[in-house]
Amino acid sequence: MIEVKKLNKRFKNLHVLKDVDLKVQKGEVVVIIGPSGSGKSTLLRCLNLLEVPESGDVIFEGIKINDKDVDINKIRQKMGMVFQSFNLFPNMTVLENITISPIKLKKKPTEEANRTALDLLRRVGLGDKANYYPSKLSGGQKQRVAIARALAMEPDVMLFDEPTSALDPEMVKEVLTVMKELAYDGMTMVIVTHEMNFAKEVGDRIIFMDGGKIVEEGSPDDIFTSPKSERLREFLSHF
Ligand code: ADP
Ligand code: MG
């Protein structure tokens, strides 16, 4: 579904991604781990061109999306993204937050968009919050709305960048549970996280990044039980 080839990205003199290659199969859950500053967010943001690669290719569903004649907005509709900060529209209700893109961008009839949104809200355990404003929700609830909002566009892949890092510990689980259910339903997912138990349990493949490179990748067992590199062993010792 996604293929990244020889991706390089620099911010001024800072070489942030160095010849990164990555493939994600349909239905696969790929978890990216690694120290702060290792390039995880930049890699994720290159997948939907929120960051423009300096060299290399990003191929999504057979289309080289860093070609200049590709309509990136169309492509982005197929790639849901959930950030650490929830980015909900504060002046809209939960329902409006979820339906605005399907109505505006996908020309969904309001009735249908509302029905889908309510289904999604039930799926993330917030069936009773449709008419609330985001300010009335907890962090965990906001993040579940953000997930529902991304799902409302019927994406082919979901990208998560530390979705639980801004949450109080007691709210982390409710968000991870929703993500776990998505994974078991067969959603293709690329997840940056520091939740190692979640990575172990839900990841099909774990990627360890350090210094702008993929240092090691493998099954959860490979990575967590028999890490090969000293850098990965050292990183894991902090958890
Ligand atoms: P991670 O997500 O693994 O913590 P990032 O991809 O956010 O790492 O960042 C990798 C490096 O690139 C860091 O040194 C960070 O400071 C730098 N960086 C990220 N975004 C920008 C930007 N927009 N401008 C300049 N430097 C950036
Ligand atoms: Mg990051």
UniProtKB/TrEMBL annotation:
One of its GO terms (molecular function) is ATP hydrolysis activity. Residues 2-236 form the ABC transporter domain. SUPFAM superfamilies: P-loop containing nucleoside triphosphate hydrolases (SSF52540). Pfam families: ABC_tran. PROSITE patterns: ABC_TRANSPORTER_1, ABC_TRANSPORTER_2. Keywords: ATP-binding, Nucleotide-binding, Transport. InterPro entries: AAA+_ATPase, ABC_ATPase_HisP-typ, ABC_transporter-like_ATP-bd, ABC_transporter-like_CS, MetN_ABC_transporter-like, P-loop_NTPase. It comes from the Bacteria. CDD domains: ABC_HisP_GlnQ. Belongs to the ABC transporter superfamily. This is Amino acid ABC transporter, ATP-binding protein.
